[in-house]
Write the structure tokens for this entry.
Amino acid sequence: MADTQCLKIRIKPGLTLPVIGWLKNLNNQLDEVRELLRNEGVIIESIFLERSQDGDYLILYQKAKDLSKASETFHQSSSPLALATQKFISETWGDIQPLELVIDLEGMTEV
């Protein structure tokens, strides 16, 4: 069974539009993104935007074979995309709050 996490990440004030642009630009680098995720053992990674009175947040949902190993692999990677992503994170992300997993259903391969 895979590891699952969901994180609520505060976007630093004034950086929401650049964050959205940077993330959407990943669609232009799908081969590199897929290779990086495959190397990390990440099965699914989805990012949502939440806008609220107290600021904007990213909601990051991840499923990986081993989340600790995925994180370690990401931080040790020398790929240009991993390095650019690490820089992006340090410049734009504020507080990170893990959300409580209540239920994680697997088993459906077709909808």
User: Anything to note?
Assistant: The chain has one domain: 3-98. The chain has a mean pLDDT of 95.
